[in-house]
Structure formats: C-alpha cells, structure tokens
C-alpha cells in the first residue's frame, strides 16, 4: 500500500524510516523536503541516496488534495476549492494583512491570534478617531507588520448544525485525513511562492474553515504537530488557533496533548439562546464550557481565550445581550471577537447596522473586556467566515429533512 507522507508527523516519518532500516535523521531531511521545499517528487531530494529515493518511490507519495478552483478577491484574500474525492470539496482561505501586500487593514479572521500590540491596533481599526500614532500623526498611514493567515478546514461538511453557518447547513460527510488537512497548508505555501522569495507567506494558521476541528481530534492533533514542527512549518503555538463550537471533553484533551491558541464560538450570552444558535450547547452548556476554557488557560500558549460572537440582527445584538455577555465571561481571561454575520443563500439572518455593532462592542469594553470587530475579508468570493460551503455529499441528509419540514 502506498503511504502518503503528508499523513505523517515527525514521529510517523521516523517510524517509517526505522522500518526501512534508515537512520533517524533521514526523517528530518524528508520533513524539510516535503514541507519547507514543497517537494512532491522524490527525485528532487538530492541529498538522499539514490537507493533510498527509489525505495520511497515504490512505497510512498506526497499528495495534497486536487485544486478544483483558485480564486483571488479584490482585497487580496485567496480561496482554494479542493477536491477531496467522492463528490466532496473543501475550502482553504489565505488572508494577507499589513505591509507585504501594501495593505493597511484591521484584523480579519486571523485576529484570534493577535500580535502583542493587537488589542491596541484592533481598537484603532474600529474606532477611527482613536487612530493616532504616538507622534500624533494618523496611524492609518503607518505600515503595519505583515501577517498572512491561512484558514483551513477539518471536515467535509459539519455535523453541528449551527443555524447561521453555511457549512452547518450542508450537513456532514466525513472527517478529513491528516494529509488533507496538512495538504491545505502544503498547497497554499507552494502556491504563495514559498521557496521563491524565501519569505514565509503564511505566518498564522487558523482552524476556522469548514468543520468542527475537535470532532476530528486525532487527525487535527497530528496536523497541528506538523504545523508546529521546526523542520516543517515552524509556527509557534501562539500563531496556530483552533476554533471550536465547544466540545468540552475535547477541549480538555487538547490542553493535555497539544495546546495551541483557542477560540471558542460563543455567539449567545445565555443557554436558552445558545441552545438554538449552537445546538451542541444542549450537550455542553455554558457553565461547563466556560469552566473548560478556564482550565485550558492554565496550559495555553496565550493567557486568554478568544470568544467569537457572530452578530445577528434582532437575535443576539441588543444592549442587554452585551451586558449579559460581559457578565458571563467575567471570570475567564478573554478577548471577544465580534463577527458581523456574513450572508449566504439559505440564510435566515441579517447583519446588524454598524452602529449597533459598535454600541455592543462599547458596552463590552466598558465592562473592562477587550472586544474587537472582525473585518470582513474575501466576501466577494464567498471566502468570509461562515460562507465556506465547498461541496459536500451530505450523509446526514440534513438538506432533505429541511426541505421536507419546509413543505410540511
Ligand atoms: N466549528 C468551528 C469553526 C467554525 S468557523 C467553530 O464553531 O468554532 C469559524 C467561525 O465563524 C465560528 O465562530 C463560526 O461560528 C463563525 N461563523 C459561522 N458562520 C458564520 C456566518 N455566516 N457569519 C459570520 N461568522 C460565522
């Protein structure tokens, strides 16, 4: 059977080398060829002896998902639609910010892992009058440090059925393999010209694409290990963020096995509303979720958790919700990231007015909690949060059931 080397972390590659009677350091060399040079061809690996290359050719491959479509947004956001077989496609999105692309923008999806000065810059991004540099000049002219965030998927579809999410509407097909998760990074890195410029185009990874990463725990953790590996992508734990709808036992497992920056999709300040918006809340209610977040922080690479809160007009955007939210999260060191709802064809929700979102943010901030508004990026190519729908063969038959319910 052919082994796809994108399925293996350092331990897996070391095992493979040992089984073929190779010295352990060969696995490090292989890792660098695969992930740093983006090699897919064993013949390119010139510092490996020819017999080893021949053996690898006979037993292994380096195969990422096939790119079905590659689209770039007017704002520089780039989206890959990837074919993962049997009628399923997933999406990965790259969001460049700051200097390198000549941009000067506020935080986008990647702001769950802000730089040290992020709370300041995020506030600047959303309150124009506060945008002043120490010298008194407008800070919007000052070049921002480059950041390139890749948002990747963990499942084909999603079983959690959050009512405001395009992926949730599609239903679930299957978990992605490690090769399919890591393959998104491998492909993006290669397509973005790593190796040509020797710069790292991808500085941050967020597991905020399609799917619930903690519902595909083992594959996601192995993929995280590859992202963090110095012989592969060498990202620090602070620059890799996993976003979850709140699978409490898995949050505890992640804390023990591979703590990275954590974002939690809160979206409602009380159980009654969250039961409706994020149905997994019926299994893991807010009290348990917040306790898990507090435990996570003990081992986390950052001393806060990011709470994501999608803003839905007339549903969860009232001043009373903001006050309730601030009270709810008081005991957990956190930052709140408000995400203006991104529409998709079957959506029953609307994005609130900018003033409503600003008022909500101000109430939370006045309670002493950092809150930022996520800038929408890539919405012209349906690459914004919650718009990723790829194409999924729904084994849960959710669409059929919805339709049947609608027509009675
Ligand atoms: N399953 C993970 C990753 C989901 S996507 C999770 O639930 O966290 C990342 C974020 O985008 C989540 O906070 C998700 O709730 C949010 N999101 C989903 N649909 C959205 C939409 N239509 N508009 C804005 N944000 C959305």
Task: Describe the 3D structure.
The chain is an alpha/beta fold and 408 residues long. 33% of the residues lie in helices and 17% in strands. It contains 13 helices and 14 strands. The protein has helices spanning 10-19, 25-36, 50-59, 118-126, 166-170, 178-191, 217-228, 248-257, 271-277, 286-297, 319-328, 354-366, 398-406, and strands at residues 3-4, 60-61, 66-72, 78-83, 89-97, 147-151, 155-157, 172-175, 204-207, 240-244, 261-265, 305-311, 334-340, 370-373. The strands form 3 sheets. A 10-stranded mixed β-sheet has the order 3-4-5-6-9-10-11-12-13-14. Mean pLDDT is 86; it is low at 101-140. Bound molecules: S-adenosyl-L-homocysteine (SAH). S-adenosyl-L-homocysteine (SAH) binds at residues 162, 164-165, 208, 212, 243-245, 265, 308, 310, 339, 341-342, 385-386. S-adenosyl-L-homocysteine is lined by residues 162, 164-165, 208, 212, 243-245, 265, 308, 310, 339, 341-342, 385-386.
Using the CA coordinates, give the radius of gyration: 22 Å
Major pleated sheet = 10 strands, mixed
Average pLDDT number: 86
Our estimate of the beta-strand percent is 15-25%
Low-pLDDT windows of residues:
101-140
Termini separation (Å)? 49 Å
Instruction: Tell me the overall shape.
Output: globular
How much helical structure, as a percent, in the residues? 25-40%
Structural class: alpha/beta
Write the element-wise H/E pattern from the N-terminal end onward.
EHHHEEEEHEEHEHEHEHEHHEHEHEH
Which sequence of strands runs across the widest sheet?
Answer: 3-4-5-6-9-10-11-12-13-14
What is the count of β-strands? Answer: 14
Say which molecules are bound, naming each kind only once. Answer: S-adenosyl-L-homocysteine
User: Count the helices. How many?
Assistant: 13
């Amino acid at each position: 059977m052919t082994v796809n080397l994108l399925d293996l972390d350092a331990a897996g590659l070391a095992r493979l080398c040992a089984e073929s009677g190779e010295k352990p350091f060969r696995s490090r060399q292989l890792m660098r060829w695969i992930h740093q040079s983006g090699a897919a061809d064993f013949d390119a690996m010139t510092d490996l002896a020819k017999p080893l290359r021949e053996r690898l050719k006979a037993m292994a491959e380096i195969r990422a998902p096939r790119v079905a479509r590659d689209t770039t947004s007017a704002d520089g956001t780039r989206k890959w639609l990837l074919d993962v077989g049997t009628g399923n496609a997933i999406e990965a999105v790259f969001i460049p910010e700051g200097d390198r692309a000549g941009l000067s923008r506020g935080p986008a999806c990647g702001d769950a892992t802000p730089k040290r000065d992020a709370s300041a810059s995020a506030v600047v991004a959303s309150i124009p009058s506060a945008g002043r540099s120490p010298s008194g000049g407008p800070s919007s002219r000052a070049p921002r440090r480059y950041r390139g965030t890749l948002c990747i998927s963990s499942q084909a579809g999603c079983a959690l059925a959050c009512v405001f999410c395009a992926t949730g509407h599609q239903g679930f097909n299957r978990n992605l393999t490690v090769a399919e998760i890591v393959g998104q990074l491998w492909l993006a890195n290669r397509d973005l010209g790593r190796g040509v410029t020797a710069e790292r185009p991808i500085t941050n990874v967020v597991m905020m694409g399609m799917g619930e990463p903690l519902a595909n725990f083992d594959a996601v953790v192995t993929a995280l290990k590859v992202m963090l590996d110095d012989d592969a992508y060498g990202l620090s734990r602070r620059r890799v963020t996993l976003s979850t709808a709140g699978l409490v036992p898995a949050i505890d497992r992640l804390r023990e096995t591979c703590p990275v920056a954590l974002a939690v999709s809160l979206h409602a300040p009380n159980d009654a509303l969250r039961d409706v918006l994020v149905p997994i809340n019926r299994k893991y209610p807010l009290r348990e979720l917040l306790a898990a977040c507090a435990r996570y922080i003990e081992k986390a690479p950052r001393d806060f958790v990011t709470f994501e809160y999608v803003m839905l007009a007339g549903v969860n955007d009232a001043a009373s919700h903001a006050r309730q939210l601030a009270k709810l999260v008081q005991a957990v060191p956190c930052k709140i990231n408000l995400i203006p709802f991104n529409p998709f064809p079957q959506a029953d929700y609307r994005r609130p007015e900018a003033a409503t979102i600003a008022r909500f943010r101000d109430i939370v901030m006045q309670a002493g909690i950092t809150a930022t508004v996520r800038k929408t990026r890539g919405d012209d190519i349906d690459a914004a949060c919650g718009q990723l729908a790829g194409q999924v063969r729904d084994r849960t038959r959710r669409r059929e059931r919805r339709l049947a319910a609608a027509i009675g």
